[in-house]
Amino acid sequence: MKLENTNLSSSPSIRKFFVENLGCAKNQVDAEVMIAALQNEGWLFVSDSDEAELIIINSCGFIQTAKEESIQVSLEMKERYPGKKIMLAGCFAQRYGEELTGSLPELDGIFGNRVLSRVSETAEKVMAGLKPVDLPESDEVSDVSATADGEKVQNEVKRKQILSFKGSVYIKISEGCNNGCSYCAIPLIRGGLKSRSISSIIREIKSFLSEGYVEFNFVGQDLGSFGADRGEAEFITLLKEISKIEGKFWIRLLYIHPDHFPEGLLTVCKEDPRILPYFDIPFQHASGPILKKMGRRGNREKYLSLINRIREEVPQAVIRSTFLVGFPGESNEDFRELLEFQNDARIDWLGVFSYSREEGTSAARLAGPFSYKFHRKMREKRKDKINLLQQAVTEERMSRFVGQEMDVLIEEKVEGEDLFLGRGYLQAPDVDGLIVINSENLECGRLVRCKIVKQNGIDLEAVPLI
User: Fold this and answer.
1) How many Cα atoms occupy the beta-carbon half-sphere of 38 within 13 Å?
2) Tell me: the pLDDT tens digits for 360-401?
3) pLDDT exceeding 90 applies to what percent of the chain?
4) I want to staple 282 with a disulfide (CB 3.0 to 4.6 A). Which of 226, 263, 322, 352 is the partner?
5) Which of 366, 399, 432 corresponds to the end of one domain?
């Protein structure tokens, strides 16, 4: 991604830091908050690790491959920069804390992900050579303040350095999760559901709108549960409040649990086209028995019914999902049912993951470590099969957009070519395909009306209508 350093200084007294961000979009928001918190304390963010005195690795600890990547990147950074300070932050640091001091002595400090505004305290200890392990928990007294009208709000750091392409930003509306899926370590890492106030989200959106942002990607472990920690779900209320904001912008909804898809969501999308008809619904599986073991209530029929209802009410809808293969006890029959669901559902975009046995989760008790290792090849073969089949499905689904006109968010220019890369409402950042726009001069970070003229695999080509 293109980064723009907005706080340059040549003063030798200002300490410079770099952030290597790993993991999901929620982690990216955390990285942006840490950057802002350090900038507020006089640190200088640099976009080149060669220039930094402190390197922060914002780690992911969701599944085994992510943990391995976090370790590998930490070791590579220390080997590359033996004279620099290396601090591990984020999910992996939060989950394993003290354990890492013995297994990764190369680290100069460890910082969790619960109270990001306090990162500067840990950074100072790291620079002093103290090798801290700081995993602060939220202090409800110090972390909450009152507005002029007496409303109690969470103290939040204003993000200044956005790590996305120009014009697009992630908005984290909640933290943690109460769904209790048996395979998922998120509650162990981020805790239970904690929703932001609607007013704070509205303020943040208006602030970014004033700075020229046009795409707001809502993230949380389950958007549909927003507000449930306060008594009842408030997601539709939030969207209706956002609809009152004037201006041209996109609201993209990422991660909605299929077992409690919000009533009224489709109506809101139809009433306000700025709330994009893009639905990220992680079905994970289609076999009833496997879903039950996962701690979910759905089955193939229920999930197909939801997909059909979405497409009937919102014909332009685009659906993204994820499948989890190789869950303990997944039989050949269970996998065949998943393949049949994949064929019937014709999901536009699909990510496939192999089951990762995570200690502390209830699913880890369903199969021991030897059984888990024994079935590794089976999991990978099933993952590869679904990926191969999905390529054809996605290409077929993308063909319907050829000939259509739509707004495209311009992301970057292709160097040396009269081409730009962008995305339409049908494509989320980083995970879906792209639109190649044939043009000599377009402004990145803007929505441009285009006509789709060609398809290249899962990608599309367009010409601007200006």
Assistant:
1) 26
2) 999 999 989 999 999 999 999 999 999 999 999 999 999 999
3) 89
4) 322
5) 399
88 with 222, same domain? no
**pLDDT tens for residues 162-220?**
999 999 999 999 999 999 999 999 999 999 999 999 999 999 999 999 999 999 999 99
Domain span holding position 48? 16-134
Residue 41 lies in a domain: yes
- Is 111 inside any structural domain? yes
Over residues 81-104, mean pLDDT: 94
Question: Would residue 85 count as lying in a domain?
Answer: yes
Domain membership flag for residue 242: yes
Model's pTM, two decimal places?
Answer: 0.93
CATH code of the domain containing 420: 2.40.50.140
